Amino acid sequence: MHGVSPAASVFLSVFMLIQSTVEALQVIGGNVTVVQGGTANFPCQLIGATETLSQISWQKKTREKPQNNNFFTILKTGPQFVNGNGDDGRFKFIGDLKAKNGSLQLFRVTLMDEGTYTCIFTLFPSGIHKTEIPLNVLVPPVTILKDDHPILGNEEVSLVTCTAAGSKPPAAISWLTGALTGKVRESTTSTLNANSTTTTISSLLGVPTRELDGQLVKCVVTSAAMTMEETLPFTIQVYFSPMEVTILETSEGSFICEAEANPPANITWSRIDLPWPQSAVREDAVLRLKEMTPDLNGLYQCEASNQHGSKQQQLRVYVASGNCTACWVLFSLLFILIVAAVAAAGYLYKSGRIQWSGDRQPVPTNSSPPEEGQVLQDSSLMGR
Ligand SMILES: *[C@@H]1O[C@H](CO)[C@@H](O)[C@H](O)[C@H]1NC(C)=O
Ligand SMILES: *[C@@H]1O[C@H](CO)[C@@H](O)[C@H](O)[C@H]1NC(C)=O
Ligand SMILES: *[C@@H]1O[C@H](CO)[C@@H](O)[C@H](O)[C@H]1NC(C)=O
Ligand SMILES: *[C@@H]1O[C@H](CO)[C@@H](O)[C@H](O)[C@H]1NC(C)=O
C-alpha cells in the first residue's frame, strides 16, 4: 500500500468486501487426507446464499465403487441414506441445514474409501451448487525384518532383508550400519501394488566373515503415513559348521566335548567298532567312565554337528589290568600333559594310556593299541 493514503486504503477494503459478497454464492469444500483407520471430516459450507435451501446431498466415487453414486441426503426431516448406500454406520452428518453447513464425517477409513466426495446444495429457485472433495488415504507400511541366514564364506550375500509392505505413499528404507559402515552395502527395490500401495524391499549385502557376526545393524523405515520413523534392530549372525572340536577332562574320568558352531552343535559320543561299554555313560556332550576296567579300552569318537556340517574328534582309552588306583592317577596326569601339548603345538600326542587324536581326521581304527613296553615305561615315569 505504499503511496496510498489511509483514507484510500479504507475505501479499497470496503470496496473489495462488497465485491466479494456480491460474487460469493459458493460452496467451500476442501481436500481431505487421512491415515487408514482414522476419521475423515469432509467440510462443506454454502456461503453467500439468500435463497431457500431445500436439501443437501452427497455423492461419492471411490475405489470400491468407481461409478458416481448418491448415498446421503439431508432434508428438513433429517439425514437419510439413499438406497442403503454407505449405510454401514460409518457416516455421520455433523453439519447444520439451517446454517447451510453440509459437513460429513467418516469413521474407520479404509483404502477402498479413497475417491471423490461431492457435496451438493439444492437451492430454490437457482438450483444446484456443489463442490468436489478429494479423499486421500494414507496407508502405513507393514514392516518385516528377515534373517537371510548367511553362511560363513568369502562371497557377497544378502545378510538381512527389511520389507515395508503396502505403504501409501511409498516408504523409504535406510540402514544404520554402525561398525560395519563401508563393509556392507544396501540394495533396494520397490513394487507398485494393484491397490496403489508400494512395497519396498531393502537388503543389506556383505561378505559373511566372522567379523560380521554379532554386529548390530538397524533398518529405518519412514513414511508420510507414519507419525514417526520405525527402527528395527538386528544382530547379524553368520552361521557355520562346527570348527575345531576339543575334548577336555572336567574331572576324573569325565570328558566334555566342545566345538564352536552356529547354530550350536549337537554333540554325539560313540565308540568305534565296538559296542558301548557298560561302565561308560554318555550324556549330551559328556562322556563318563565310571570304573577303570579294561572293557573300556578302545577308541571313542565325539561328533559335533549342525545343519551346516559336522566334525569329529577321537579319544583313545587304555586301561591296564592290575593296580587301578595307580591307573587313575596315571590316566589323569597323562591327560593333562596331553592337553597342554595339544594346546601348545597342536600335534598328535601318543601315550601308553590315552591317545589323543588332535587331527581333524579320525584316527584309523586299525591303529594298534599301545605296546606293553611303553606302558611300563610310562609307569616308571610316574615313580611306580
Ligand atoms: C489434495 O491433497 C493431496 C495431498 O496433500 C494432494 O496430493 C492432492 O493433489 C490434493 N488434491 C487436490 C485436488 O487439491
Ligand atoms: C460446519 O460444521 C462443522 C462440524 O460441526 C464445523 O467444524 C464447521 O466449523 C462448520 N462450518 C462453519 C463455517 O461454521
Ligand atoms: C494392497 O496390496 C498389497 C499387495 O497385494 C497388500 O499386501 C496390502 O495388504 C493391500 N493394502 C490394502 C490397504 O488393501
Ligand atoms: C542331536 O542328535 C541326536 C542323536 O542323533 C538327535 O536325536 C537329535 O534330534 C539331534 N538334535 C538336534 C537339535 O539336531
UniProtKB/TrEMBL annotation:
Q: Mind telling me which Pfam families this protein's record contains?
A: C2-set_2 (PF08205), Ig_3 (PF13927), V-set (PF07686)
Where is it mostly found? membrane
Q: Name one GO biological process term.
A: cell adhesion
| Region spans: Disordered | 359-384
Spell out the GO cellular component terms annotated for this protein, sorted alphabetically and separated by semicolons.
membrane
Protein's recorded name: Ig-like domain-containing protein
Q: Which family does it belong to?
A: Belongs to the nectin family.
PROSITE patterns named among the record's database cross-references = IG_LIKE (PS50835)
- Annotated signal peptide: 1-24
Q: Species name for this entry? A: Pagothenia borchgrevinki
Give the top-rank taxon of the lineage listed in the UniProt record for this protein: Eukaryota
